[in-house]
Amino acid sequence: MIKQESRAYFQALGAHVTALRKSRGMTQAELARAIGVSQQAVFAYELAQRRISVLVLAKLARIFSTSVEDIVGLSKPIRVRKGRLSPRCMRHAERLQALSKTQQRFVIRIIDVLEDSNRGHGEAR
Q: Looking at CB atoms within 10 Å, which of 2, 25, 42, 105 has the fewest?
């Protein structure tokens, strides 16, 4: 059981894991398979009913292509360009929304692979 003084931290951590999972279009069951735990464990992590071990944090960092520091909130937040999407980006977003959830996850994974590839090459373009 998590002590009261830690609950707020683990709630924020669980919410962050949920946001990362959803941004990748993953279900709890898919994330559970990827990190080698049950779907119920992922559910408990996300609701702060169970602590996330360091081993699981490392697996999450690998799956989400980020650092453990980012997942636990120790790194500086990444600046996201604010503003409106271009008309072309809006059309692509609308086309993505029209796809099935499975197809959306596939497209998002392709984008993730391309982002990872760019990181590995110093993001030179």
A: 2
